Amino acid sequence: MENTLGLEIIEVVEQAAIASARWMGKGEKNIADQVAVEAMRERMNKIYMRGRIVIGEGERDDAPMLYIGEEVGICSRPDAKEFCNPEELIEIDIAVDPCEGTNLVAYGQPGAMSVLAISEKGGLFAAPDFYMKKLAAPPAAKGKVDINKSATENLKILAECLDLAVEDLVVVVMKRERHNDLIKEIREAGARVQLISDGDVSAALSCGFAGTNIHCLMGIGAAPEGVISAAAMRALGGHFQGQLVYDPEIVKTGLIGESKEANIERLKSMGIEDPDKVYDASELASGQTVLFAACGITSGNLIQGVRFFKGGARTQTLVISNQSRTVRFVDTIHMFDKSPKSLQLH
Ligand code: VTB
Question: Alpha-carbon distance 144 to 155, whole Å?
């Protein structure tokens, strides 16, 4: 899968990132997202594969493109028989977030990325559009920290695993009211909190790499992006655990229905009998093959954002494969045919 799709998926996230980056700093988060979706879908549909979106822009009714269940790739076309050989057909599941951190792009803030994860059919958990309590940590702490333990306990374990003092640890937490107690606890334990406004996929990824000065991600973000983070951490060998959050009272965003009970029913109808189950990375991204790609839209701790120049743009993409056990940072210069002025907003 990696050999066939490796380069293609790099281009998919690059195209989405470039499209979105044109809207950086314009205060238009919906457009920054929409252009990324369009560019990602267009490039994806040129790949010789039969892909199915398992995590995407939402249910079919609310999302016209890259909706959950949409089939993508040349071999999904109705006339596919003419040019796709069923014997060599790659059937894959895809999780996408063409613009992770739409606000970050709109307000020119760091850490926005275009991301996707792929696996063979059935290899990625089709997370409901709920929230997820997340814990991400470096490979050295894999299986040692535990989402069921308190933040204080986890910080002690993490410090031991990394041979650092708790005082040296930097924990990323999204700035939300729901995290007030967590932030207080982390600071009381002696560690440092790096607050971010959005973009916890980038934060989870940063935990996987030494030298980012980010040692842990704690808190509640969106569930679908949790699966994408898990895929990256699975391929990388880092720690990731997630637990669905289905109680509207906990998040108070008004985005996950009206009652806890109704949400539990919804989960049941999706085949999730134990709504409190803690999933680890190998359950959220259980496929034999897991490939992950992220292209920076705005620069973050780990990867640089899109930089435009006269006649082109430069991008940086991170590609992680559990198959070849590689992490690649791909630096690409894109040469545009059109004059620089046509690069401006359209
Ligand atoms: C976003 C986003 C994150 O979670 O905030 C979201 O920035 C959900 O949280 O990167 P809110 O509804 O409280 O904003 C993520 O999308 C991903 O987990």
Answer: 11
pTM of the complete model = 0.94
Rg (CA), the chain: 20
Contact 252, 119 (CB under 8 A): no
Distance CA 128, CA 154 (A): 27
Q: Round to whole Å and give the CA distance between 108 and 257.
A: 31
Q: What is the pLDDT of residues 254-310, one digit of tens each?
A: 888 889 999 999 999 999 999 999 999 999 999 999 999 999 999 999 999 999 999
Domains of the chain listed by start with CATH number: 2-122+288-335 (3.30.540.10), 131-284 (3.40.190.90)
Q: Which two tokens stand for residue 321?
A: 């494969």
- How many residues comprise the chain? 346
Q: How far apart are the first and last CA of the chain?
A: 36
Give which of 236, 15, 199 is closest to 112, Cα–Cα: 199
- Give me ligand 1 centre to Cα 96, in Å: 15
| 94-140 pLDDT, tens digit each | 999 999 999 999 999 999 999 999 999 999 999 999 999 999 999 99
Distances (CA, A) of 138 to 12, 205, 238: 27, 9, 5
**Nearest atom (ligand 1) to Cα of 176:** 13
Residue nearest to atom 10 of ligand 1 (CA): 199
CA 39 to chain centre: 17
Residue 222: CB within 6 Å of ligand 1? yes
Taken in order 282, 285, 288, 291, the sign of the CA dihedral is negative
Tell me the CA distances in angstroms from 317 to 15, 47, 104, 113, 115, one per residue in order.
11, 18, 18, 9, 9
The answer to whether the beta carbons of residues 106 and 29 sit under 8 Å apart is yes
Q: Which of 221, 223, 219 is nearest to 263 (CA)?
A: 223
Task: State in Å: Cα 202 to ligand 1 middle.
Answer: 12
pLDDT in tens, 139-171: 999 999 999 999 999 999 999 999 999 999 999
